[in-house]
Amino acid sequence: MKKKTSFISKFYVALIFLFLYAPIGVMMLFSFNSTSSTYTFGGFSLHWYKEMFNDTAAMQSLKNTIVLAVCTAVVATVLGVLAAIGFFNSKNKLYKSAMMNVTNVPMMNPEIVTGIAMMLLFVFAGFLVNKSDVLGFWTLLIAHVTFALPYVILNVLPKLRQFDMHVYEAALDLGCKPVKAFFKVVLPEIITGIITGCVMSFTLSLDDFIISYFTNGPSFQTLPIYIFSMTKKRVKPDMFALSTLMFVVILVLLVVMNVAQSRAENKGKRDAK
After folding, report:
1. Nearest Cα to 134, choosing from 146, 145, 124?
2. For the chain, what is the HEC assignment?
3. Which of 35, 69, 200, 270 is at 20 to 30 A from 206, Cα to Cα?
4. For a pLDDT cut of 70, what percent of the chain falls above it?
């Protein structure tokens, strides 16, 4: 009976993974198609990868997307770590609870509501300074940092709660200055949470479409918006090639992040013993 239950559970999990990853597998397969057909595989070829690199507009959109994602990850990580430290050190439970609830709003709020609200805010701010073309890179960056920030805070806070603050206090008693004590004692213990939050911010910014659609301007176009504009005509297989490369890069990042986090946890267990 147990073997039958185990088989059914494994089969069920296999079906779920097949449902989730079969479309990605098909996309990756047709990125190597020798023809432009999206339903008939005509043979293996790297033609569409060459076409992808020759598409100036797509490469510029990809560059914009990567630059925006890197800037979002850096800014959200710095602000998120500072906010997490502030929440952790706060002694007022009511204030801490209220601030955490406010911080979680961008995660729980529907993206279309956030996108429209931020667009109206930026347009109104542009009206106040008498500037019509306010939407662009900076509005996108502010919007992306807004929805990425909670993920950094939620990844760093548990690491701070696990950390023994007596070690930090001992460093201060031994003559270490607070800033130096933080970088020497606290930072190594919470670095896995910081890296996780940073990678999450990068990936969330990389594939965001809804909020970017409402807060971008004609001077700065991201890749998801560029691909959406192509759906009004016909998506060529070179977009399959580009999406395949992006999927592989994100997959490698996640694997590296999980391996690093696993090693850090094992090291912490060994040190504790």
Report:
1. 124
2. CHHHHHHHHHHHHHHHHHHHHHHHHHHHHHCCECCCCCCCCCCECCHHHHHHHHCHHHHHHHHHHHHHHHHHHHHHHHHHHHHHHHHHHCCCHHHHHHHHHHHHHHHHCCHHHHHHHHHHHHHHHHHHCCCCCCCCHHHHHHHHHHHHHHHHHHHHHHHHHHCCHHHHHHHHHCCCCHHHHHHHHHHHHHHHHHHHHHHHHHHHHHHCCHHHHHHCCCCCCCHHHHHHHHCCCCCCHHHHHHHHHHHHHHHHHHHHHHHHHHHHHHHHHHHHC
3. 35
4. 93
Show the tokens assigned to 9. 């559970």
Residues facing 33 on adjacent strands: 44
Q: Which residue has the tokens 């809804």?
A: 210
Helices 187-207 and 237-272: crossing angle in degrees, nearest 10, is 170
Cα 79 from Cα 178, distance rounded (Å): 19
129-181 pLDDT, tens digit per residue, is 887 788 889 999 999 999 999 999 988 988 888 887 788 888 888 878 888 88
Asked whether 103 and 149 are in contact (CB, 8 A), the reply is yes
Half-sphere exposure of 41 (CA within 13 A, CB side): 10
Burial per residue of 175-204, b for 16 or more beta-carbon CB atoms within 10 angstroms, e otherwise: ebeeeebeeebbeebbebbbbbbbbbbbbb
The Cα–Cα gap between 249 and 258 comes to: 14
Task: Fill in the amino acid letter for 271.
Answer: D
Instruction: Give the tens place of pLDDT for each residue, 62-117.
Output: 899 999 999 999 999 999 999 888 888 888 778 778 887 888 887 888 888 889 99
